[in-house]
Amino acid sequence: MIRATIENINVYEGQVVTLSGWLYNKRSSGKIIFLQIRDGSGFIQGVVVKKEVSEAVFETCKSLPQESSFHVTGMVQRDERSALGYELLVREVEVVCRAEEGYPISLKEHGTDFLMDYRHLWMRTPRQHAILRIRDEINLGLREFFHEEGFVLVEPPIITPASCEGTTELFEIDYFGENAYLSQTGQLYAEAAAMAFGKVYSFGPTFRAEKSKTRKHLNEFWMIEPEMAFVDFEGNLKVQEEMVSYVIKRVLQRRRRELELLGRDVTALEKIEPPFPRITYTEAVEMLKNAGFEFEWGDDFGAPHETHIADQYEKPVFITHFPTSMKAFYMQPDPTNPEVILGADLIAPEGYGEIIGGSQRIHDLELLLEKLRAENLPEEVYQWYIELRKFGSVPHSGFGLGLERTVAWICGIDHIRQTIPFARTLNRVYP
Predict the structure, then answer these.
(1) Which residues form the Aminoacyl-transfer RNA synthetases class-II family profile domain (predicted)?
(2) To the nearest whole number, what is the mean pLDDT of the chain?
C-alpha cells in the first residue's frame, strides 16, 4: 500500500494509493458519488463509481456526513478539469470517525462573526486553508533568509518589566506580586543579543492593548525583529528590501496555486524587486497637501494617507526621516537635522499600510539618557539597556515586520483577522 498526500499526488499518476483525510463535501449523480477529500496538504476529488466498488463501499460513501475522517484507496488519474489536475478513482474506504450530522459550516454564505465563532472549523475550508499555508511559507521564508544571511535566532521574554515603546498600551499582569507586562516588542532584548552575536533576529508573539477595530489591527500578533551591530540607516533599508523580495519570490515559486485560489493578482507581486522607492516624511506631507488632504507636519499618517502615498508606486515605498517627537526614545536623530530620525516605515502597495518600522538606534550613552529623561521613563527599569551603551556601544540598526499585515498583503485579503489561526481582537478572545 502506497500512502500519499494530496500535495504530492502528481508523483503517483496511474498508481493505487491511500489517502488519509476528511470528507469536505460530496455530491451524487445516482450511480456516481463525487467526494471532495482534504488531507491537510490539499483538496482532491474522489470519484466513486457504483459498478466498480462493492455495495458496502458505495453505501458507506453515500451516507457519510461532512467532515467524517477516513482512509481512501484509489487510482490516481489525470483530470484537466480539476484545479489540482488529478482525481482519485476510489476503490476502498475505511471510516476512522463518522462525524455527527449537522456540521455548523455549510457551503452557503455565513457572516464573518459566525465564522470567527467557528474559527476552529472555518480554517478547514479551501480559502482559509490557502491563507494559512501561505502564512507558513512566509514564516519559513523569513527564517531561511536570515539564516542564510548569518543571523542568529534569539528568543526575548514575553513578560517584561516595562514598556519598550514608551506608551500606555500595555497588557498588565500580576507577576508574583509585582507589576509586569506582556511584551510589545522583543527589540530591546534583541539589541542586547546583537552586541553578543553581531546579527540576530527574534520571531514571536507581541501584544498591544490599543482599542482599535480596524481591519489592520490585532491585539496579539507576530513580529520578526532583526537587530544588526555596525549597520547604519542605509544598510538597514537594504536588508529590508532584500528580505521582502526574497519572501515574495519564495511564495510565488511554492504557493502559486494557493495565491490563484485566493484570486490574487500575482503580476503585482512579480514586480516587487529592489530597490524600493523612498520619500521623506516632509515630502510625503507635501504630497498629501497637494492631493487635498488636511495634513500638517508632525501629524501621524492614517490609513487614507498611507493608501494615497502607496498608490503612487507599484512597489512598497519607504517613508523616511519622521519627526523625532513622533517616534520612540531609542531612535537615532539625524545628525544633520536632529528634528527628524534616521528611521523609516515601509508602506505596502494596494492599501495594506505599514508592514515594517525600523531605525538606526541611539548608541550614545548621554543622548539615550537625555531621551529617557525627556519622556519621564524610569532609568532603573532600563538600567540593563543603558549598560549596553556603557560597555562596547556601536552604531546599530534594526526593524520589525508585522507578519499578519504581510500575509494580508501577499494574499490580497481584506481583513487581518483571517491571517492568523485564532485572532485576538478588541471583542474576541474565543475560540
Answers:
(1) 132-421
(2) 96
